[in-house]
Design brief:
The protein is mainly α. Helix content is about 80%, strand content about 0%.
Length: about 200
């Protein structure tokens, strides 16, 4: 593969993560971001980086040992499971995260990144059979750019929701807790619907 083909795969990765067909990945990113405020971007960055490491490992596996990847039907089922688990974790452990145990969330995001990376790898192998070393690098960079855009948009939206809810509650803290609960419950329900639709057996 010529390096001149690198740029199109950056565009392919970027387009894949922001496309309507990638709504499950987008929803997972929103679930990850849901428990953070705008001024907690450092904690959010650690978690997002952990997710990136996880899916980069699986994407690399697509090059080095593609036979080790699980069947696509299983991967597509487990992606919404990660959404459900993240939504539930948001509801159960928000206070633990704010007390400094955000590293545990990073470990979870990294493990779930492995699952999402298998989904990305499956897509890339369909559009590009054969050797995918250089295209994989470009595709992964495009994914990260798209992911950054999605997360910035999510944080702006979530901050807007906090401010809107603050006018209906007793203050910013109450509005924030209400928003975390509402968004987390919504993403968990949507993940549940997708999981039922994708049951592979």
């Amino acid at each position: 593969m010529d390096f001149s083909a690198f740029r199109p795969f950056v565009s392919l990765g970027f387009g894949h993560i922001i496309a309507s067909g990638a709504m499950d990945h987008i929803l997972f990113l929103i679930a990850l971001a849901a428990i953070y405020r705008w001024n907690e971007w450092r904690q959010a960055l650690v978690v997002v980086t952990a997710f990136t490491v996880g899916h980069s490992i699986t994407l690399s596996l697509a090059v080095l040992a593609p036979r080790l990847l699980p069947p696509s039907s299983l991967v597509e089922f487990f992606i919404p499971i990660t959404i459900i688990a993240t939504g539930i974790e948001n509801l159960l452990t928000r206070r633990a995260v704010t007390r400094g145990r955000w590293w545990r969330r990073g470990v979870l995001a990294s493990a779930f990144g492995l699952v999402h990376g298998a989904g990305f790898a499956g897509y890339l192998s369909q559009v590009l059979p054969g050797s995918i070393g250089i295209p994989l690098l470009g595709f992964n960079i495009g994914l990260e750019l798209g992911q950054g855009l999605v997360l910035c948009a999510a944080m702006v939206l979530l901050t807007g929701l906090d401010r809107a809810m603050a006018t209906l509650t007793r203050g910013d803290a109450a509005a924030f807790q209400l928003r975390v609960a509402a968004v987390s419950l919504l993403v968990a329900i949507m993940g549940g619907v997708w999981a039922v639709e994708r049951v592979p057996w």
